[in-house]
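hey team, just a heads up i'm posting the complex here instead of the shared drive bc the drive is being weird again. everything in one block, sequence lines first with there labels, then the predicted structure for the whole assembly after. its two chains so it's a bit long, scroll down
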Amino acid sequence: MISAHDNKAPADPAVIKEKILQKYPPKVARKRAKQILINEALENETPEITANVRTIPGIITMRGCTYAGCKGVIMGPTRDIVNITHGPIGCGFYSWLTRRNQTDASADGAENYMTYCFSTDMQDKDIIFGGEKKLEAAIQEAYDLFHPKGICIFATCPVGLIGDDIHAVAAKMKERLGDCNVFAFSCEGYKGVSQSAGHHIANNQVFRHLVGLNDEQKPGEYKINLLGEYNIGGDGFEIDRIFKKCGITNIATFSGNSSYDQFASAHTADLNAVMCHRSINYVADMLEVKYGVPWVKVNFIGAQSTAKSLRKIARYFDDPVLTERVEAVIAEELPPVMEEAAKVRPRTEGKTAMLFVGGSRAHHYQELFKELGMKTVSAGYEFAHRDDYEGRHVLPGLKVDADSRNIEEIEVNPDETRFNPRKSEEELAALEESGLAFKEYDGMIPDMEKGTMVIDDLNQYEAEKMVELLKPDIFCAGIKEKFSIQKLGIPMKQLHSYDSGGPYAGFKGAVNFYHEIDRLVNSKVWGYLKAPWQENPELSATYVWE
Amino acid sequence: MLLRHTPAEVTERHALTINPAKTCQPIGAMYAALGMHGCMPHSHGSQGCCAYHRSTLTRHYKEPISAGTSSFTEGASVFGGQANLLQAIDNIFTVYEPEVVAVHTTCLSETIGDDLPQIIDKATKEGKIPKGKQVVYANTPSYVGSHVTGFSNMVKGMARLAQSTGRKNGKVNIIPGWVEPADMEEIKRLAALIGVEIILFPDTSGILNGPMSGEYKMFPEGGVTIEQLRSAGDSVGTLALGEWCSADAARFLDTNNKVPCRVLDIPIGLKATDRFVDALRTIAGVSVPEEVTHERGQLVDMISDMHQYYFHKKVALAGDPDQIISMVEFLVSIDMLPTHVITGTPGKAFAARIRELTAELPVEVNIKVDQQADMFLLHQWIKNDPVDLLIGNTYMKYIARDEDIPLVRWGFPIVDRVGHQYFPTVGYKGALRLLEKILSALLDRKDRDDSEQSFELVM
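-- predicted structure starts here --
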């Protein structure tokens, strides 16, 4: 039995780490020790952490699978593609609308299949005799019913095992249907060690089969793509609102509130702005190599980060008109947000948070907590790789292990007709000189204070132990973690899917987040955990009416 | 329109399921396993299954759902999952210290042919299962049956623990079927009122509707104990509630342990509850106490008081066979018209039962039962033959909104409302609540739609 309301926590992180590890069998303890890091990041030196390695069987993990990363995370928010899960019913069912991806399909005649769940619902005879025929028929039925622009196929575990050639089926059906782009994803759940593999598989296929299909120049100035933003709780809407106000044109968001045509036109943008580095950094690289579009890392979580990211984009375009507009927007939007933060701050100042979210969010959301005067005492990612923790400079030295080797890397070359370097070498160098970093991500660790604890692939037992020992004022993770943490009397904010509320990105989102955190850490409910008679049990006595 | 692409015209589909009225076996096995005291469910396959099942159950109950996974990667998928499961069993008993681990398979481990009894046997021989602790199992490939059959398989896995000493324990086994924790609590209350000692399994009450106290217990007080399950082989009889979710385990006890069984419907609504109470009374040889008869009378009273608002209202339902059968009987019994009925859990007896229950109705009744029965078809039927009320899980809210039809949330999963974990829908009290929910939905709608001239104060 664990209680979060015992005596004062031990502050020494080494002691905490020791306490966590002692319960494990020796082999497990040795492995986990390398994934639990006490942050000693110095100026130019980041400590090394083990990440993107196998989950330990039997240890209750926060992670999901490759299919979830591919179908749920990356393709889930795309509204006008019919996504067919090829497999037994479960996977399709569970990925049916369970992330709070919002989409705007309000245009006349707009297609929106996000509310539908399509599956081949394989039965035992399909497993024995193969499911290709059924898949082919399912694609035909979907086409006959809806005539969509695109149909995507997702493989679940047994499909890979029985060897259905989903890519051949997709190619055949694309050919047969003529006006419908059909392509497939080998995203069986067992590939890789987490959702991350699924992001990679999804992005690769979108890049291969969709990006670059529409050369038409879209109207607007300062064209960018926003990569790694999934429009959870409407985040993407708020970012788009700000872009619009600044006069920046968002050609494609990968993949929140996205559409078939956005992906097809992505190569016409002039800059890629990367939000979630983990889920999509390789697409940014590929867009640069193939089409000549450079990329910068941005972060629209936190009001200051939003301002910083807007300035970064403006600096890239290096046009006084845009710079002026961006400054005007910041001058208009930022002060009321900071005013709101100042109002909330007396109730949040000095409180502590723990964040174990996704592959960038545990980093990004620390900005918002800082704006509330809150400190992140421990953080980590569910499915990150070392570069997310330590920065991109570790990439060349990363060894590719057996579990990563089966995740395809696409070989990309400059497109013969479409490659067009947006800036000359000299311009890029000059921009770098002026402080604009291209292809750069420092990672989470350097941004965290010395002595904080960084933990990769946190599990349920460790989460409870951390809460017990460090007693944070709020804990952020996913829905599976939510209620065990709350039973301990610690408010828990879901930051994968937000539970409810949002947007939390951009300026208006920041205000929403301040109020949400204020609501959570100052809720009266945390004061009701013990009944009056439990608070003072020794004072029992007969109450005399007379 | 959120389901704007659904055409009214029904076309034959053979391969594509759209908006399924079921999900896969393992989640049912996981839910059933949570009804054992001190149990850690374990999903033998890749880790996404476990994550999805935990998330869905968490969203439905707003409670922590702990479960392990064998976390297969490509290697295990090729070479077999034995090493992963052995390691998992060792880790689970070391780190979480459960009384019992309930392993179920997934489509992955089934397809590669992992042999659970053999692996569990090996774990026992290698000392990975501490003395006095148990590992139970169920085979639950997702390409067979549905979440309902997965539930049933794990309940049968529990029944395998039963032992027969030759001395009867005077108790009645009740297998409640896939119902909510509150329903299991209600079944226990009714049995206690009638004066029958029971062994209820699974029993998720006290586990999935726990209090907030500043403490987290991975294994709360509730659930059927291993000792009780062992003793189930000495019971005087078994009442299995629901052919689909409970009968297999009951028949297993009948054959294996000579514990005679009766399969009843889940006691949802007046008549099914009558039969349940009557069965308990005859098994125990006791009279039904006045208190139970009183509750029954209250239900009959409410049916008569408000009959004018239910009478001949058309209803469309999607859900699980055992629940739907009882619900359809209840609706017919209060003169409502269940017009479109879908279940994605196959079973030949279903359509026949629904036909029988609705035979006298003055309307055409659409029934579809097979693995491909889906809410897309249900929606198409509704477009062609509109109804007054929808009864089903949360996913029905899209149809409800598009067609502007009130929805009573009932079944699994309900991820956008609370109450199902706390308030029963079985028994007479449960029927009162169901009736109240149906009535509120219909009357709210009437209040909204009535003209100012005909707007009623008293109803």
